[in-house]
Amino acid sequence: MELGFYGAARQVTGSMYLLRLETGYNVLIDCGLNYEKDVPREDNAKFPFDPEDIDLVLLTHAHIDHSGNLPTLYANGFEGKILCTEPTAALVDILLTDSANIEANRVNKKRKKKEATRRLFGHKQVMDVVDNIVTVTFNAPFEVNQHLTVEFVPAGHILGAASIRIQVTENGKTKVLGFTGDLGKSDAKVVVRPAPLKGLDYLVMEGTYGSRFHKEQRSPEETLIEYVTKTCIDQPGRLIIPAFSVGRTQAILFTLNKLFREQRLKPIRVFTDSPLGISSGAIHEDFVEYLNLESRKFVSEYRDLFKFPQLDIIEDKEDEESMQRYYEPSIIVSSAGMLDGGRIQRHIANNIQNPLCTILIAGYCTPGSLGADLLEGRRSVRIKKHDREVYATISSTDVFSAHPDQTELQSYFQEVNQNSALKKVFLSHGEESSLLLLKDVLSSDYETIEVPYVNAKYTL
Ligand SMILES: [Zn+2]
Questions:
Q1: CA of 84 to the centre of ligand 1 (A)
Q2: How far apart are CA 73 and CA 56, in angstroms?
């Protein structure tokens, strides 16, 4: 068989791996959108293989850099099925529908400016994706055909996320490949901890934070208590937490809910302004059995994971206006995490000149994003076509991170290695420098580690 690396190779986005079996059966693992800054969006339609030749897609999780190019695959001739877990199927539906709206807006803007462009996909292709999903359960081997059996195991990271174990039998020999997908932290809020893959011959492992160490020593509860107390209790300020809609928004709302219910924090008013955050929160509540023990216990005691009496959901203009008129201390949780787009920009624009405001950045910001500019300490930033002086306090925490750091990746790897006879390890889904550093660190345990370039192919 042959394994090709067609995305997330020495970069983070566009996850896409192709496994060509000797029987002629072709399996694509993930089909993510490549949104690196220097790549034109239209390039996502240029597949390095014929989509008609793909027989099956295995999808690790719903994030757009793993699922976002599936509609384009259908638009270009793919007619097969997609295997994923049930919560991933539900999240894919809302995330791709949102993505189709973003794509339509992008194309309209370009056309208004009379710039040449091509629409990658529309709502019809999103329906193709949704209609062709076959859901699988965790830890239950699924026989695709006599040569191929797949098993999805929990990866943590976000609701429904899986690592995939693929067993291939060719010429009387069986080989086992493992794809970690994106892994989560072992002590993450809401989601389960990752279960290491076992009995592998080959491993494809993510290395997003291969060069980084999580700095926050305190728990999520202690971290939020400190920021809420400093900003909203010791002074009449406003705490703004930018957060991705799936995963981080739920982890933050859950932690606040817990602190209020346990009376460890005064009931400060919280505004959440993220329609996708609300719909993905509802999906979390539909799949409580997939969440960690702490969340399941919380549901049996308090019923709602993410809702509490002083939570206000911003749904329309009227809600927003009433929030603007609220001058008491408050907390705003809004998307997107890197502050580059979405509703968070309005909140930042309205509050960045308020010295009683703290903006708590809870995730990684790529260089050049507004979040990264603020973290660098810029005293003036441009938001919505206006230059604005920065008087708010800018802080950051990695306590809600959705990925393991170098130490955790190393112990994950050691566990897989102890339970496998690995012939080769491939590192992907990370910036080049992260992956090369991670390779050095892991080389103390194991020697044959590759960091593939895009389009690299390996015979296994
Ligand atoms: Zn992810």
A1: 14
A2: 11
Residues 106, 77 within the same domain: yes
What is the Å distance from ligand 1's center to 130 Cα? 19
Cα–ligand 1 centroid distance for 417 (angstroms): 23
| Residue 293 CB-half CA count within 13 A | 3
Ligand 1 (single-atom ion) residues, CB below 5 Å? 63, 182
CA 98-100-101 angle, 5° bins? 65
Query: Do 320 and 455 share a domain, yes or no?
Result: no
Distance (Å) from CA 67 to ligand 1 centroid: 10
Low-confidence ranges of the chain (pLDDT < 50): none
pTM equals 0.95
Tell whether 258 and 364 lie within a shared domain: yes
**Residue 204 bridge partners (DSSP):** 179, 426
253 shares its domain with 311: yes
Of 344, 371, 396, the last residue of a domain is: 396
Domain span holding position 68 = 2-212+402-459
Which pLDDT value is given to residue 94?
A: 97
Distance 262 CA to ligand 1 centre (A): 31
Q: Are residue 234 and residue 202 in the same domain, yes or no?
A: no
Q: 351 C-alpha vs ligand 1 centroid, how far in Å? A: 30
